[in-house]
Each structure stands twice: as structure tokens, then as C-alpha cells.
Design a protein that fits this description.
The chain is mainly alpha-helical and 135 residues long. The protein has one domain: Four Helix Bundle (Hemerythrin (Met), subunit A) (Up-down Bundle), CATH 1.20.120. 71% of the residues lie in helices and 0% in strands. The chain is globular, with a radius of gyration of 18 Å. The termini are far apart. 37% of the residues are buried.
Length: 135
């Protein structure tokens, strides 16, 4: 028997599926995973050999932090957290953690504005360090 057939015969299953489908995206969000992924990309940025790769990975980290509606989000850059929620900052409910994430995002934006490999790498290392404290 497939799942649809089972659900048709089971009103409890139908009600449960309807309730789960009605939950907002934030209920499915995984801020911890977004922070972890952002830290990973900040680390890759800090270790990059070229400005292009350093900026790309730092932007991936920023996209994970701010989400699609956040300041500095670039839809042309990859968003490795696209299936995890709305971004670590909007998905985080802890006020202290949110402040740390906002500091990390500000540092990422600063590094991306510099267009200097050493500055981007230094800022990326700072972002990674800040995010490791939040994880």
C-alpha cells in the first residue's frame, strides 16, 4: 500500500500531514546548520589562494548568515544554505547568538568591499572565529 492510499484511509494521517504542511518555513529552519555551513565557507575563504575564490566563499558565508532577504545577500553567488531556512540571523532566536551572527555578517560585508586578497582572508578568518563561538 502506498502512502497516499494509507493516508486516505487514515484521517489522523491526513490531519497530521495538513498540520505539518501548514507550518511556516521558520519551523523547519536549522539555524545551527546554517551557522556551521557559514563557518565552513568562511574557513575556505580564509584559506583561498585567489581573490576570486576568497570572495566567492565569503559571499557563500554571508548568504548563509543573512538569508535571501538580508543585507548583502547576492542571488548570483551560491547559497549553500538555501534548503536550511531563511538565513542564520533571521532563524536564530537567541539574542546573544544573533548579535554574534550580525557581527560576523558585518565583518563579511567589510571583507567583500575591500577587493584585497589579504583583507578578505583576514576578515574571513575573523568571521569563522566568531561563528565557531556561536556553534
Amino acid at each position: 500500500m502506498n502512502i497516499r492510499c494509507a493516508l486516505r484511509k487514515n484521517w489522523t494521517g491526513i490531519a497530521l500531514c495538513a498540520a505539518l504542511a501548514a507550518l511556516p518555513l521558520a519551523a523547519w529552519a536549522d539555524a545551527a546548520e546554517e551557522v556551521s555551513t557559514a563557518a565552513k565557507h568562511a574557513g575556505m575563504s580564509a584559506q583561498a589562494d585567489s581573490l576570486e575564490m576568497a570572495e566567492a566563499h565569503l559571499h557563500h558565508a554571508l548568504n548563509c548568515l543573512v538569508g535571501p532577504k538580508g543585507r548583502g545577500f547576492d542571488s548570483k553567488a551560491e547559497n549553500p544554505c538555501s534548503d536550511m531556512g531563511n538565513g542564520a540571523i533571521p532563524d536564530t532566536t537567541d539574542a546573544a547568538a544573533k548579535k554574534s551572527l550580525e557581527r560576523a555578517a558585518a565583518r563579511a560585508r567589510s571583507g567583500l568591499r575591500s577587493h584585497n586578497l589579504e583583507t578578505v582572508k583576514k576578515d574571513a578568518a575573523s568571521v569563522q572565529s566568531e561563528l565557531e563561538k556561536v556553534k
